[in-house]
Predict the structure.
Amino acid sequence: MGSNKNLDCFMLSMGIRKELQLIVVLLVLIVLLVKAVEFFKVDVVEADASNFVMEDLTSRYPNADISLMSIKQKSNDAGGNYFEVKAKVTENPNSPCPERMHIYYNYPEQNFVSQPNDIITKDCEVCLEGICTLAFPEEAVIASHTFVGTDVVALYLSSYPSAFPTTSEGQNSWTVVWDSPLALEKYLVQLGKDGTILSIEKMEKD
């Protein structure tokens, strides 16, 4: 009798353990499911913000080079969440004078005005005030033919209006190559990000 009683207690204990294990597993699954729902909810909203901004910019600047620079989730005073989207718009991207600006959106729209646009380049000018820093390729393109010492490049562009720039970025420098399909030569301009002209090289094409 005693052995049967012990067996019954053992079986009861095993049943309780299995129930506890099942409860723990279910709780873990519920937590994971909630996290997954939150993740996909945020992801969908962020995708909606991206699509809204790209559609708006495409309609407003149909011939510009457009891209998203950052998307940040923020909270307003009422405790609601929204996304601050920063986008880049460059008009005339392959010309000697590309015009770049950064545009900010709040999605959904908030009851306060979003950050004003940043004008990076305009009217073929850079480094108008303060310390000169060539932070973006559009600035390097303009500097490569407008800064002191770049007269030969400006003359090349005047002679060959079909010339277009190709830019590459180094750690502390920019390289701008000006090439025209009608010319027998091209120019390679190296600039420091501090606005200095490092070198200008005329290169004969094969």
Q: What stands out?
A: The chain is about 40% helix and 30% strand. The chain has a mean pLDDT of 85.
